[in-house]
Amino acid sequence: MTEALRDEEQTPEVLTSERVYEGAVWDIRSDRFRYGDGEIVRQYVDHPGAVAIVAIDDEERVALIQQYRHPIRHRDWELPAGLLDIEGEEPLLAAQRELAEEVDLVAGQWESLPSIFATPGGSNEIIHFFLATDLSAAPAAYAREEEEADIRIEWIPLAEAVTAVREGRMRNALLAIGVLTASLRHAER
């Protein structure tokens, strides 16, 4: 049963779809579609998608960043991550770019981790996770702006990050999914 247990794609007839708000990063869409015997209207964030990177060094430490996030009024701990905002860029290439841009690293080994739907009731955002190992310094450091201007980069033992997630001290969803998945993957080896 476990192998058959999976999300099932549906393609209802979309009767109308309009952008009701155009934002700097993502838009809001309103769709009217047939479902069952009726019609439903739903608004949602139309998102380009994203990548998140669990970068683990030879000492079993994970690279985490801390930056200000205005909607939650916190400097939360996060994984290096970023938008799929370059037309046609594959998720792995975006992950490689984001790792270099956010923490000035390149990885010799890349492994795909599961992709997730961030908030399926309100957004079409999909996030592709990657495990990056065999790390070294990027050839050049990137200039960071806006919220990224004061990013704090720390190397945290993976086990300590897992404990912080389990205790509710680190609440970023991508960080939680990434470090827990990487920890499980590590335990399987």
Helix content: 10-25%
Largest sheet: 4 strands, mixed
Average of per-residue pLDDT values: 92
- Any low-confidence stretches, pLDDT <50, length ≥5? none
Tally of separate helices: 3
Alpha-carbon distance between the two ends: 24 Å
Order of strands, main sheet, comes to: 7-4-9-8
Structural class category? alpha+beta
Overall radius of gyration: 18 Å
What is the β-strand count?
10
Our estimate of the beta-strand percent is: 35-45%
Element-level helix/strand string: EEEEEEEHEEEHH
Shape: globular
How would you characterize the overall build of this protein?
The chain is of the alpha+beta class. The chain has helices spanning 91-103, 158-166, 173-188; strands spanning 14-21, 27-35, 38-46, 50-55, 61-69, 74-78, 81-83, 105-117, 126-137, 152-157. A four-stranded mixed sheet has the order 7-4-9-8, sandwiched between helices. Strands 1-2-3 form a three-stranded antiparallel sheet, with no helix packed on it. A three-stranded antiparallel sheet has the order 6-5-10. α2 crosses α3. The longest helix has 16 residues, at 173-188. The two termini are 24 Å apart.
SSE blueprint and pairings:
Blueprint: E1 14-21, E2 27-35, E3 38-46, E4 50-55, E5 61-69, E6 74-78, E7 81-83, H1 91-103, E8 105-117, E9 126-137, E10 152-157, H2 158-166, H3 173-188
Parallel strand pairs: 4-9
Antiparallel strand pairs: 1-2, 2-3, 4-7, 5-6, 5-10, 8-9
Helix pairs in contact: 2-3
